Amino acid sequence: MSIQTEHYGAVIDALTAHVALLDEFGGIVAVNEAWRQFADANGSRLPNYGVGSNYLEMLRNPAGCTGDNSATESEERRSATTVVAGISSILDGSCPKFQLEYPCHAPWEERWFLLTVTRFPPGALVHVVVSHENITALKVAEKQAVSQAKRLAETFSSMVGAIALAIEKRDPYTAGHQRQVASIAVEIGRVMQLGKDQLFGLHLGATIHDIGKISIPAEILNRPGALSAPEFMIIRCHSGVGQEILRGINFLWPIADMVWQHHERMDGTGYPQGLKGDQICLEARIIAVADVFDAIISHRPYRPGLAIEVALAELRKGRGTLYDPEVVDAALSFLEKVGSEWHRTHLTYAEALSA
Ligand SMILES: [Fe+2]
């Protein structure tokens, strides 16, 4: 070790990452204490901990990681090939820095490392610094967070499913309508390229968007004839009642707002708050369009379901005034094609989650 690398040694020994210093050909000039300890702990038999060997050659014949299955080993070999290319790009000056997360599992534990390769200023004996930082704790925490988020989503799905079932027991029409609206709404959201998390929340909100109807007497909901003005007033309360029921639940998505706002209209003529444009959350604007479409084509106690063309004409007529034009365009893009077969787009919770 030269005086130069001895000085470097004092610095790199203070680091917890496993560090090697390479010369211009990829030969290992020095390694730090953490590198030596890792080699000892993993039974490495490299003479002098690799100092004096060529690191690129070592990577081309990897023996440091001991994966417990062929899939892991092949992933490690792919990583090694990428690292050789990365270090070579530093050595030839075509790249200033190279980083890669890679697995290096041991028989007794899964491990991940972050490799960072940086270049020394020209003229030094050392040309490249290679650092392997153990990021296993971070990766494990990431995995746990993903798993917990999935469980939480499943819990919300179950909760919403239970609420929808409670509605179905009392009012089968509303339950079926909500399911259909949820299917159309998610399809609209997919056309609008919403992220899967937002799509999932949209599906949940649409599935219970009429939950407030639970407060409306069945004889009003199912009356075959025309409703009186007071009865209309009672029905119009359902979005506010729905918001009251849901606002205490700390959903990850604005479910209570979706329910509260699904009868609002872009020009402010909707209810209950008379919101306009962007004051209405996007999900509620989507549910509004899906709701109107399904309500028109569905059979009601006071009339049979109307033709698809009638529903499509209503969306076109209200585009930009009652309904969000982008939402209408997204809806028409598939409803015009599938027509009465639209229900083939029906999605389950799981499908919405993985869309
Ligand atoms: Fe409604």
Which key features would you list for this structure?
elongated, five-stranded antiparallel sheet, 2 domains, 9% strand, binds fe (ii) ion, Hypothetical protein af1432, 5 strands, Beta-Lactamase, 355 residues, 53% helix, disordered C terminus, 15 helices, alpha+beta
Q: Could you characterize what this model shows?
A:
The protein starts with a helix and ends with a helix. It is elongated, with a radius of gyration of 31 Å. The protein is built from 15 helices and five strands. Helix 11 crosses helix 12. The protein has a five-stranded antiparallel sheet with strand order 2-1-5-4-3, sandwiched between helices. It is α+β, with helices and mostly antiparallel strands and 355 residues long. It has helices spanning 3-12, 33-41, 55-60, 70-91, 136-170, 172-191, 196-207, 218-221, 229-236, 238-246, 255-261, 282-297, 308-318, 325-338, 349-354, and strands at residues 18-22, 28-31, 97-103, 112-119, 128-134. Bound molecules: fe (ii) ion. Residues 210, 238-239, 262-263 line the site of fe (ii) ion.
